[in-house]
Write a structure and sequence with these properties.
By secondary structure, the protein is of the alpha/beta class. It has 13 helices and 16 strands. 40% of the residues lie in helices and 22% in strands. Helix 10 crosses helix 12. It starts with 8 loop residues before the first helix and ends with a helix.
């Protein structure tokens, strides 16, 4: 039966239900990002009516994901009541698999760093490796006293192309895998699992705490990768290879890349290019650089010149901020100013390169991004 407007009643009810859910989700996401706040503050920030906000925060409290956080200090009138997220209502675990290490992180609904562990275990596509991973995960959960029913699942960060259509790793030069079924890893994990490319995971970690932001994430680890983040998600590309800047040719006929080509960005800008001077210790490299040692100074100068070309070209194409992440982004500190200066000299538009930003996460952001992927999914469904 139709109403007086000519619209089906069921369609109208469905539309209203969807709108109510959208409002509730916006409110919950806002509180997750901003912490303890009042209903009037939410109404003002989200441009919603106060009755709508009050109704939704009551529903969220009944669901158990919000709690009454007391009153604000009086400003002369009636004290405003506040609400906050029950941050530990759910947990998520991220695991970053690299050639030589496993990194595990534990986070909650607000993306807090609750626990972090890095274990030296060279990757091997063998049952013994996966059983060791399974045991390490069990110990990690037990040590942090996490109730299993509160765990959303385990997200994996993989240095390779993760194909979401086939649920396989198309290729990982680092792990020496090709057309690899992800269920082979997932079968050892007693929780829901999901998989992300390591650069995509790092970008997601950065974007989680900056909703609405747009940026290119440049991952400078022992290999070079990249990811474009926009509209609250990482863009993957038609073949899940969006952002693979490590294999753009920087110097035709130049240094040999692990992919087999010559002159790729990777051998000029990976973290080993710097850390190799200090037996893999990148922090030591920057300490010696800041003290003025000649070998580090010369290597950094060459590194910055190459990296500046890469950043300049990316920015000319996208015109968005560029976040430098990975081992180099985490360790470089004030040395980012050298990079900004080199890019400024290349800039056609005479821009101040403040658009070049250091990463927020200084320890295992790829593992964090893998964990936060499912946190964001949970938030979206509340």
């Amino acid at each position: 039966m139709n109403n007086v407007t000519g619209k089906p009643v069921t369609q109208e009810k469905g539309t209203n239900k969807a709108l109510r859910r959208e409002n509730r989700n916006r409110i919950f996401r806002y509180i997750c990002r901003n912490g303890r706040t009042s209903n009037p503050a939410i109404a003002y920030a989200l441009k919603m009516s106060l009755p709508t906000v009050l109704q939704n925060t009551r529903e969220l409290q009944e669901m158990g994901v919000l709690f009454d956080a007391g009153e604000l200090e009086s400003t002369g009138g009636r004290k405003a009541k506040t609400v906050d997220v029950v941050a530990d209502y759910r947990y998520s675990i991220g695991i970053d698999i690299t050639r030589n290490h496993i990194v595990m992180v534990l986070t909650n609904l607000v993306g807090a760093n609750l626990a972090w562990e890095r274990i030296h275990i060279p990757y091997q596509d063998e049952e013994a490796y996966y059983k060791r991973l399974q045991e390490l995960l069990r110990r990690f959960v037990a040590h942090n006293r996490v109730e299993k029913e509160r765990i959303l699942g385990v997200g994996f960060s993989i240095p390779g192309i993760v194909n979401f259509r086939t649920n396989r790793i198309d290729r990982s030069h680092v792990l020496e895998l090709k057309d690899y079924p992800l269920e082979k890893i997932a079968g050892y994990i007693p929780y829901k699992t999901w998989f992300l490319n390591d650069a995509n995971a790092g970008a997601f970690a950065e974007g989680f705490h900056a909703p609405g932001d747009h940026f290119f994430y440049l991952s400078l680890n022992n290999t070079v990768g990249g990811a474009f983040y926009g509209k609250n998600k990482v863009l993957r590309g038609d073949h899940f290879r969006c952002g693979e800047v490590g294999h753009i040719v920087l110097v035709p006929g130049g240094k040999r890349c692990y992919c087999g080509k010559a002159g790729c960005v990777d051998p000029y800008c990976n973290a080993l290019r710097l850390a190799g001077l200090e037996n893999g210790r990148l922090e030591t490299f920057f300490q010696n650089l800041h003290s003025g040692r000649e070998p580090e100074t010369q290597r950094w100068k060459e590194y910055v010149q190459n990296l500046a070309l890469v950043i300049h070209n990316i920015h000319m194409m996208l015109d968005y901020d560029i976040i430098i992440g990975g081992y180099v982004g985490s360790a470089m500190g004030d040395s980012i100013e050298d990079i900004r200066k080199a890019v400024r000299e290349l800039d056609l538009f005479d821009q101040e390169p403040s658009y070049i930003r250091p990463c927020v996460f200084h320890a295992s952001e790829s593992a964090f991004g893998a964990a936060l992927f499912e946190v964001d999914s949970f938030i979206s469904q509340v």
